[in-house]
């Protein structure tokens, strides 16, 4: 599975953020999801330590998981995950905060095994709203393997 050289050139030229419509790559499925609620409304601090997803977050994630199941599961790693926000967001939100819940839902839908750095070596997001745009487009693609550390001592 390969991305066109033209699309990769645009990708690199624009600070590694995808531009325009997602590429048409054999086997890649782009899923459009509603924009997730704010991170402040997705998680709360548990009295037992850690963060727990709120009822609002669980409802959004359950809906997202149903839609993400249409994606092909990643079978070879590493991968890069891309997000393009297609609708206007009125609130002043941090786009990077959208990634956490989207990737968590991709794990829950079993599209990716895990989001550790050995499996997901890159994520990119872009805010590209249009008048008729809705939600967030999400897709993944294979990435180049990370070079292995040499076992030789210096």
Descriptive keywords:
4 helices; 60s Ribosomal Protein L30, Chain: A; two-stranded antiparallel ribbon; globular; four-stranded mixed sheet; 6 strands; 154 residues; alpha+beta
Terminal-residue CA separation:
38 Å
Biggest sheet, strands in spatial order?
A: 1-6-4-5
Overall radius of gyration: 17 Å
CATH H-level superfamily: Holliday junction resolvase RusA
Assembly context of the chains: single chain
CATH class category label: Alpha Beta
Please indicate the count of domains: 1
Mean pLDDT: 82
Amount of beta strand: 15-25%
Number of beta-strand segments: 6
Class per helix and strand makeup: alpha+beta
Order of helices and strands: HEHEEHEHEE
User: What is the overall shape?
Assistant: globular
Number of helices: 4
Taking pLDDT < 50 over at least 5 consecutive residues as the criterion, the unreliable ranges are 15-19
Gross CATH architecture: 2-Layer Sandwich
CATH topology: 60s Ribosomal Protein L30, Chain: A
What share of residues is helical?
25-40%
The biggest beta sheet, please? 4 strands, mixed
Protein architecture, described:
The protein is of the alpha+beta class and 154 residues long. The chain has one domain: 60s Ribosomal Protein L30, Chain: A. 26% of the residues lie in helices and 20% in strands. The chain has four helices and six strands, in the order αβαββαβαββ. The strands form two sheets. Strands 1-6-4-5 form a four-stranded mixed β-sheet, covered by helices on one side. A two-stranded antiparallel sheet has the order 2-3. Helix 3 packs across helix 4. The chain is globular, with a radius of gyration of 17 Å. Mean pLDDT is 82; it is low at 15-19.
């Amino acid at each position: 599975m390969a991305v066109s050289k033209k699309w990769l050139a645009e990708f690199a030229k624009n600070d590694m953020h995808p531009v325009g419509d997602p590429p048409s790559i054999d086997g890649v499925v782009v899923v459009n999801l509603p924009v997730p609620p704010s991170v402040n409304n997705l998680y709360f601090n548990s009295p037992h330590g850690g963060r727990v997803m709120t009822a609002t977050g669980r409802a959004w994630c359950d809906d997202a998981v149903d839609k993400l199941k249409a994606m092909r599961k990643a079978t070879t790693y590493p991968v890069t995950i891309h997000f393009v926000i297609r609708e206007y967001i009125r609130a002043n939100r941090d786009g990077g905060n959208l990634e956490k819940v989207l990737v968590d839902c991709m794990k829950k839908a079993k599209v990716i095994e895990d989001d550790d750095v050995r499996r997901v070596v890159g994520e990119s997001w872009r805010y590209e709203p249009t008048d008729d745009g809705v939600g967030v487009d999400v897709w993944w693609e294979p990435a180049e393997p990370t070079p292995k550390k040499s076992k030789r001592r210096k």
